[in-house]
Design brief:
The chain is mainly alpha-helical and 248 residues long. The longest helix is centred in the N-terminal third of the chain and has 26 residues.
């Protein structure tokens, strides 16, 4: 990689790391379409390369969220175990899919998720109150792990609204739980994509370094913003990405 490429990828990784920390998503939802559009990567290679940046960002993001909103370790372990096993199965399949098919799946997923979140944001918000269903939280790992394995992204995007709506968690607590689900899943997905030689390390590593410098700042801002504004920003991020993929 040339010096000019580094001057682009380091700030890019820093921007993605900040937004990943802010929304608890690792930055992959923006990085994957960008790697395909700006660098001409096929879908599987873009997903594998984005995971290089996402894994360290997710580790730091989860640690920061856990400091502010501790989640019982037993629940974290159960959630992570279900998600990791599901990710391992689906990533093995996704790394061998036709890139065109994978790109269509990614575009459809982001568009549907954007519309769904816009509908939820427009609905009246309930007061978060943890309930008896909390013992079912690990089952969310089946959904989040499938998304991480197949698309390299989306585990947190799917899980966070489920934690809020179904289990009455506050947005920041939901994002902490989502990171507990996504972090080990992303590591497993990265290993699977790397084994299938679907990772550009020269591109991914500088982005990861840039992200490490800013992810904590994103987490700090997330805890200063009002709850309603967090949900609105989260919805607009998904909508913008979904429209980007559709127009493409």
């Amino acid at each position: 990689m040339s010096a000019s490429d580094l001057l682009f990828t380091l700030p890019l990784g820093a921007a993605l790391g900040f937004f990943g920390g802010l929304f608890g998503i690792g930055g992959g939802v923006i990085a994957i379409p960008l790697l395909g559009l700006a660098f001409g990567m096929d879908q599987a290679l873009a997903q594998g390369t984005a995971l290089v940046m996402m894994v360290p960002n997710l580790v730091i993001g989860w640690w920061r969220y856990q400091q502010r909103h501790p989640v019982p370790w037993r629940r974290v372990a159960a959630l992570a175990a279900v998600a990791t096993a599901t990710t391992a199965l689906t990533a093995h399949f996704a790394a061998r899919l036709d890139p065109a098919v994978l790109r269509v799946l990614f575009g459809v997923f982001m568009s549907a998720l954007a519309l769904s979140l816009m509908w939820r944001t427009g609905a009246a918000a309930d007061t978060p109150r943890p309930g008896r269903r909390e013992r079912l939280i690990p089952l969310v790992g089946l959904i989040g792990g499938s998304s991480m394995g197949l698309l390299g992204v989306g585990g947190g995007l799917l899980a966070a609204p489920l934690f809020v709506r179904l289990f009455r968690q506050r947005q920041t607590v939901a994002q902490s739980l989502a990171l507990a689900l996504v972090t080990p899943s992303a590591a497993v997905a990265l290993a699977t994509y790397a084994q299938a030689q679907r990772v550009d390390w020269a591109m991914g590593l500088p982005m990861a370094i840039g992200g490490l410098l800013t992810v904590s700042a994103g987490v700090a801002l997330a805890h200063r913003l009002p709850e309603a504004r967090m949900r609105t920003l989260f919805a607009f991020l998904l909508l913008a990405t979904g429209l980007w993929m559709l127009l493409r």
